[in-house]
Amino acid sequence: MANPSEDGGAPMQVAAHLMPVRSFDAACAQVIDYLAQVAPMGLWAVMRVNEGTQLVLSSTGDTYPVHAGDVFPFGTSLCRRMVSGDAPRIAPDVAQVAAYAEAAAAAPITIGAYVGTPITGPGGELFGTVCGFDPHPLSESLTEHQPLLDLLSSLLAAVLAGDLRATSAARELEHARREADVDALTGLLNRRGWDRYLHAEEERFRRFGDPACVVVIDLDRLKVVNDTQGHEAGDNYIRRAARALESGVRQGDVVARLGGDEFGVIAVGATPEQAREIVERADEAMRTSGIAGSFGFAPYTVVSGFPGAFEAADRAMYEQKRRRRACVRA
Length: 330
Hints:
Strand order of the largest sheet: 3-2-1-6-5-4
Distance between the termini: 88 Å
Largest sheet: 6 strands, antiparallel
Number of strands: 10
Protein name: Sensor domain-containing diguanylate cyclase
CATH architecture of the largest domain: 2-Layer Sandwich
Organism: Pseudonocardia charpentierae
Strand content: 15-25%
Number of helices: 9
C-alpha cells in the first residue's frame, strides 16, 4: 500500500470538507439533522440542563414553536424522567408509559411520542439531553434506533469533553495575554481587555449554553472629588472602588475598568439571582469604602449575546442612577 508521504514530503492533508467536527455546537447540529432524517419526528433538539432549566442549544423541525435560546423547566419534563431512569429512552406512545403520560399531560404542547438520551460531561455529570418529540404516537419500530442513540450520545460526550479542554486551554492563554490589557490605575482589565474577553467568550458561551450575567457600575461623585480635592484624590477614589468591586465578586468573575468612572463585571456561571447577590455585596463593600455608585445587571442569552446583555445592564444602571437623583432632588 502506498504511503501518503513516501515521496519524502509532508503527510497528505485531508480535504477540508472531510475533516471531523471538533466544536460541540456543530456536532449537535449534525446529530439532530441526521436523526431527523433516519427517525423523523416533529422536533429534534439538544438541550443544556442547568439550574433546573433546559436551554435549547439546537433544534430542527417546524411542528412545535421551539427554537434555539428557548428555556423550559427541567424538573417537570419528560427528559427529567428519562435521565433518572424512571422511564425508557424511547416511548413510541407516551400514554403507555405512566411516568411520561403524567408529564405529557401537564406539558403546554401535545406529546404523543418521545425519544431522549443524556449527554454527559467529562466527569459523568449530566450536561444535557438529545430529545425528540412528536404530537402523535409512532410505530414500535422507533425502538430500533436505541443503538444509534447510544452511539450518538457517546460521540457528543466525546466532542464535548474535547471542546471543553480546548476552551480551557484557550482561556488560560487569554489569561496570559491580559497583562497587555491591564488598566494602569487599578490593575483591572482595561476596555480593550474587556472587549477582547467578550469577543473570545461569546462563541464559547453560545456553544455550551453556559449561564452568565453582565454587571455595569458607574461611580457617583468622582467629578466632585476631582474638583474639590484634586485629581490624586480622584485616582484614589477609583482605586478604592476597584478594590471594593473585587472583594464583592466571586473567584472566576471578570472585573474591568471600562473608562473614567465606569466598571464592568462578567459574573461567569451566575443566574440573575446570583448576580443580584454579587451586586449587593459589591455595593456594600463600596459604601464601606466611602464610595457611591449605581449598578445595573442583565443575564447573558444565546439570542442577544454579551452585547445585548451589556446594553440591558447599562440601561438598568442608568435607570437606577435616574431614580437615585430623583430621590435626592425630592
